[in-house]
Structures are given as C-alpha cells and as structure tokens.
Recover the amino acids of this structure.
C-alpha cells in the first residue's frame, strides 16, 4: 500500500477501506508517513467528506494507536459525558454525584487543559485536600463501592489524534465534521466507558457557531458511537451566553453545591437534567428518559445527590465540610459590582468575551504553564431576557486586586441592554 494512492483516492471522492485508514493512522503515528502527506489527506477529507463507515474506521484506528483504559473491573454500565466546551460549564460537577446517587458508575478521567476557567480537576482542587492522583486500584475500588471517583489523565491515549489535531491546526483542516467527530469520539472510546452522552454546544462561546453545524456534528458522533458498539446520545445546547451564574473554579464548585440542593440557576439545572436523564437511561437504571428524569429530581429533593457529593469529596481526601460551609472554599478578597449603564432588557451576553474577562482575572490558563487562581471569577447577576434598571449590578467580579478596569470594560463590551429581549432556549435538540 502506498500513501500517495490513498490520498489520490480520497481526492477523487472514493471511499477508503478500513485497511487504508489503518495504514495511514499507524504509519503516521509511527512517523513513517510524513506531515505533508497527512496534510494532503486531511485536506482531501475536508473537501470530499467521509462515509459513516470511514468515520467509524478512522475513530477506531485512532483509538488503537495508543493505550486504552480498561474499566471492565468496574461493575455495571459505565457512562461518560462529554461537552464540546463552553463558558462556566459546571455540569460535570453536578452530574457526577447526581447520577452516582442513582447507582450509575461514574469512573471519570479528567484533565486540566486550557480555557476560560480550569478543567474539572482544577475545580475539584479548590476543595482543600482533594486528591486526584489516586492509584488505578483505588480508583476501581472506589467506583465499585461508592459509584464515583475522578482520576487525573494517565497513559498515552490516542497519540494519532494528538498528532493529527496539531497538524490540522496549522493546515486549516480543523473545521471538518468527520475529522472533529472522530477526534472527539476516539478520546472518549479510549477512556473506556460503555456508553457516551454528548453535550454539543452552539453559539458565540462554542466551537460550532450555528445550531445546524452543531446538529450535524452531534449526529456524526452519535452514529460513530453506535456503529462501534458504544451507545451514544447527544443534547444540543445553547452557549450564546455562559451557563449558570458562576464562572471560576471555587465559584463553580459552590454553584454545583447549590444545584445539587435544588437551589442552583435554572439553566444549569435544566441542562443537568437533560444530560443526566440520558446517562441514567443508557446505564439501564430507568426504562425511559421520563422515568430517568423523575429519579434525578427525586435524588435532588431527597438529598441523596448532595450526600453523594460529600462522600465523593471525603473518599478522595477532601474537606467535605465545604458543602455545608461554602465560605471554606477559596475566597477572593475583592468583590466589585458592575452597574448597568442603562435600563431595559439584557439582549446579549457574549459567552466567549465573558469567558475572556474571567481569564483576565486569572481563573483560567492561557498557556500550559500558567498558574490558576482558584478563588477568582465572575458571578452574573443578570442573564439574557432579564429586566435591569440603570445602576443595578450586572455582575460581581471576584478578584485578587482592585485594579479590574480591563475586566469591567470587557464586560460592558460583551453585555447589551435594549428595549426588548428574551431568554434563548437552552436545550435546542436531542439526538439519539
Ligand atoms: N475538539 C477535539 O477534540 N477535536 C477536534 O477535532 C476539534 C475539537
Ligand atoms: Ca456556571
């Protein structure tokens, strides 16, 4: 087999065989196929697309390019949740204990990553003592006994995707549905879960700017998952404005606690229920999505979800008293209000711009080496569709300095107040 023939076949719109795709991925991972040939193939795929079978083959070839996590020692159907990324997305912190309270095993491997705030691991580390560096044995044992554990990323998962994603980044081939879908799904499948629930975001703060693109990506991923034997469902959700009120690490832990108590922001609760019901259903703990949702609501109202969160923290060495005493979480010394400059309705809160404001405060990493400040961030006091009076606070800045003019300017630039405005729908579609 020759790489040049594979490129030519894709260029001409032919369907690649499973062997050809494997030849490419293996050769590229091992450094036998050069970047220029891989770039040419990526560009051919960008223009010619891939069939469902090719997408599934590409995904599995990338899964098999490195280590995979074996969760077979954990009883039950392991369901993982993945979000394509947004601003102030606190759903994992809520969902993990919430579904675990219904005996769905949550065996979560999580990263730190770059972004407006830290990743799930950073957020959890704002709880004193919380340790994600547990052994594989402890991890499996905790999930079997307590249904929940989170561990930091280990192992060399999907090296082919790492290499190809970096190449796509510099060859204008990131934005291709078959390449994005196989990239995301390969990582999820390598992480070992039996079923996958996807939260595909759309809007200013999301990778997919329009609902149509988000739906296409969601369908592509759901089909790949089901084709390779991992039951997969997806929710398309709005990310034109940040999710919930809190954007920041400790602030989001507090928001998760409020939500587990049934007193969180309505949008965050709605999305957690939409994703949670798919997780509970796929785990076989309910016979319909409606029944699953009822059970989730019950776990919130009877306190079991909150109790599970406390157990989870204590199991991993953390101070579970923060659940009842959130003031024990890291606190920023300065709280600065951002008053509205006009009266009316909030019509716009551009998610990625507000995320950047949180990052200016130090809530997220610009580079891998950046230090994160777990205490800082933003609390949005208004959301799109809310009525606001001039002088009323739009947001509260939690900062470690009083010099936050740049953050205030960023917030004013991203929030619009006009005569008419209405809250956008949050859950736009369900893909099964
Ligand atoms: N996120 C991924 O993990 N892969 C892509 O290709 C795009 C976004
Ligand atoms: Ca939030």
């Amino acid at each position: 087999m020759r790489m040049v023939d594979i490129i030519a076949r894709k260029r001409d719109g032919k369907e690649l065989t499973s062997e050809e795709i494997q030849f490419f991925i293996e050769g590229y991972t091992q450094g036998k196929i050069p970047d220029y040939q891989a770039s040419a193939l990526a560009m051919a795929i960008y223009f010619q697309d891939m069939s469902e079978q090719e997408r599934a083959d590409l995904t599995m070839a990338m899964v098999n390019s490195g280590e995979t996590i074996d969760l077979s020692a954990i009883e039950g159907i392991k369901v993982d949740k993945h979000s394509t990324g947004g601003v102030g997305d606190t759903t994992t912190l809520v969902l993990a204990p919430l579904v675990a309270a219904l005996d769905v095993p949550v065996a979560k491997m999580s990263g730190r990553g770059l972004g407006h705030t830290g990743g799930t691991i950073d957020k959890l580390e704002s709880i004193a003592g919380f340790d994600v560096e547990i052994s594989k044995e402890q991890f499996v044992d905790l999930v079997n006994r307590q249904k929940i554990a989170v561990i930091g990323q280990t192992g060399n998962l999907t090296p082919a995707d790492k290499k190809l994603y970096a190449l796509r980044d510099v060859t204008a081939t990131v934005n291709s549905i078959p390449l994005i879908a196989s990239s995301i799904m390969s990582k999820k499948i390598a992480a070992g879960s039996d079923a996958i629930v996807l939260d595909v975001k759309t809007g200013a703060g999301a990778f997919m700017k329009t609902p149509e693109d988000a739906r296409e990506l969601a369908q592509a991923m759901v089909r790949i998952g089901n084709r390779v034997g991992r039951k997969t469902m997806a929710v398309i959700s709005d990310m034109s404005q940040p999710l919930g009120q809190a954007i920041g690490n400790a602030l989001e832990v507090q928001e998760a606690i409020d939500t587990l108590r049934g007193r969180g922001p309505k949008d965050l609760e709605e999305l957690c229920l939409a994703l949670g019901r798919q997780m509970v259903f796929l785990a076989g703990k309910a016979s319909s999505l409606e029944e699953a949702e009822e059970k989730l609501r019950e776990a919130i109202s009877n306190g079991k979800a909150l109790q599970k969160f406390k157990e989870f923290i204590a199991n991993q060495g953390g101070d579970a008293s923060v659940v009842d005493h959130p003031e024990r979480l890291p606190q920023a010394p300065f709280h600065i209000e951002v008053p509205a400059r006009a009266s009316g309705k909030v019509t716009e809160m551009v998610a990625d711009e507000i995320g950047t404001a949180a990052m200016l405060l130090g809530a997220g990493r610009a580079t891998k080496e950046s230090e994160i400040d777990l205490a800082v961030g933003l609390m949005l006091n208004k959301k799109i569709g809310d009525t606001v009076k001039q002088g009323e606070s739009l947001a509260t800045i939690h900062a470690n300095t009083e010099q936050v003019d740049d953050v205030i300017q960023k917030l004013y630039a991203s929030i619009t107040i006009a005569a008419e405005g209405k809250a956008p729908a949050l859950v736009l579609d369900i893909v099964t």
About this structure: The CA atoms of residues 365 and 371 lie 7 Å apart.
